[in-house]
Amino acid sequence: MSRRLISTGSPFEKTAGYSRAVIDGEFVFVSGTTGYDYATMTMPESVEQQTRNAFATIEKALREAGATFADVVQTRYYLTDAATADELFKVTGEIFGEIRPASAVLVCGLLKPEMKVEVEVTARVRVR
Q1: How far does Cα 76 stand from its chain's mean position?
Q2: CA 23/CA 46 separation, integer angstroms
Q3: CA 70 from centre of chain
Q4: Taking a C-beta distance cutoff of 8 angstroms, is the pair 117, 51 a contact?
Q5: Coiled coil where (predicted)?
Q6: From residue 42, how far is each of 6, 12, 38, 50, 70 by CA, in Å?
Q7: Which segments of 44-116 are extended strands (E)?
Q8: Contact (Cβ atoms closer than 8 angstroms) between residue 126 and residue 25
Q9: What share of the chain is helix, strand, coil (3-state, %, to 5)?
Q10: Angle between the 85-96 and 47-64 helix axes, to the nearest 10 degrees?
């Protein structure tokens, strides 16, 4: 079994001591991902758009690992306000409505005040 790290190239990954994703054997562990728009380095206001941006980043990491959303077996969502769950679910339902991984939603504080949602996934890559 091999272990490989996936990086977005952000210097923060080295500073904070983490990888965007870690491939360990057939599993891909994607770190908590917030909704920054990396093209503009801005954070959108809405939970829906932050969630879409987070999933775009996650999808790139999964693709680099040889996985897709269909390989996701577990998700964890962190929201700063339970009242915004419907915005989150609009996006997660589009992506995982048929896949239906095990899931948890937690309401908590996040690192910066503009962050409203953070998404973390685990995938298992199967031989295709």
Answers
A1: 8
A2: 31
A3: 14
A4: yes
A5: none
A6: 23, 16, 7, 10, 29
A7: 72-79, 102-107
A8: no
A9: 35, 30, 35
A10: 30
**Structure-block tokens of residue 3:** 């272990």
Question: Which pLDDT band, with edges at 50, 70 and 90, does 12 fall under?
Answer: confident
What pLDDT, on the 0 to 100 scale, is given for residue 128? 59
The vertex-113 CA angle with 72 and 51, nearest 5°, equals 25
Tokens of 120: 């973390």
Residue 3 and residue 25: Cα distance in Å, rounded? 6
pTM of the model: 0.94
The full length of the chain comes to 128
Task: Give the DSSP H or E segment for 49.
Answer: helix 47-64
Which residue from 91, 31, 18, 39 is spatially nearest to 61, judged by alpha carbons? 31
pLDDT digits (tens, 9 = 90+) for 63-87: 999 999 999 999 999 999 999 999 9
Q: How far apart are CA 122 and CA 128, in angstroms?
A: 18
As given in the structure block, the two tokens for residue 115 are: 């962050």
